[in-house]
Specification:
By secondary structure, this protein is mainly alpha-helical. Helix content is 64%, strand content 3%.
Length: 231
């Protein structure tokens, strides 16, 4: 029986898409988002998924949802750093992100050491191709989720999902994460390829070292970013 592939939850996918459109100005402050029916048709998801997505957007402060009217965009770039609660939001984001990343720094190097030399080349090639197949880059979590999935441990897959959600769920309004900035993405691409090469070559210790180096780089880069936001 084939192992079930771990997918990013649908509500996360729709949430990321809508949040991106709000931050990029497709939907501006005061605009109404498409209705639930329109979102269901546009994204091909259930009403439950759409309602969960809208509830999360409201919780994050991007929209205000009311019965009979729909979801109105609240977000605006104007004076975002002076927005009430921005500093507190940054601290909350920093704490949740760094906590999840610390756990992943212990976990993922052990995962790649375990799978080194034991994974079919075709499965690694799928991850390799995913690195630059999407316009403007790729979803970083897809790479990391994919590696953990290769271990074949469903409980570990679930843990990884929760860690990813912990990292992503507290992002304050208007923040462009370092991993979405080209300079850092280029470095991450190189690091991911080194990890994949070591796994494919069966070099468990190098795979471990490269993943440890990679997670340290992410942690350090985000810490510097958080320090900058605090200024």
């Amino acid at each position: 029986m084939a192992k079930k592939s771990v997918q990013i939850p649908l509500y996360e996918q729709v949430l990321k898409e809508l949040k991106g459109k709000i931050v990029s100005g497709v939907y501006k402050k005061g605009d109404l988002l498409p209705s639930e029916k329109e979102l269901i048709e546009e994204y091909g998801v259930s009403r439950i998924t759409v309602r969960k997505t809208l509830a999360l957007l409201a919780e994050m402060g991007f929209v205000e949802t009311s019965k009979g009217r729909g979801s109105v965009v609240l977000f605006s770039f104007e004076n975002i750093s002076e927005h009430q609660g921005f500093a507190e939001a940054v601290e909350e984001y920093c704490e949740s992100f760094m906590t999840a990343t610390q756990i992943r720094s212990f976990l993922e190097p052990e995962v790649v050491r375990e799978i080194a030399g034991k994974v079919e080349k075709e499965k690694l090639e799928h991850l390799r191709k995913s690195i630059k197949t999407k316009e403007g880059g790729y979803e970083l979590e897809e790479f990391h989720r994919g590696l953990v999935e290769l271990l074949g441990n469903e409980k570990l897959n679930e843990m990884m999902d929760q860690l990813m959600i912990l990292e992503e769920s507290k992002i304050p309004l208007g923040i462009l994460q370092p991993a979405n900035q080209k300079k850092m993405r280029d470095v991450l691409d190189e690091q991911h390829l080194k990890i994949l090469n070591a796994i494919e070559e069966g070099n468990a210790e190098f795979a471990y070292f490269y993943m440890k180096e990679h997670m340290t780089y992410i942690s350090r880069s985000y810490k510097q970013y958080f320090d900058m936001l605090r200024k």
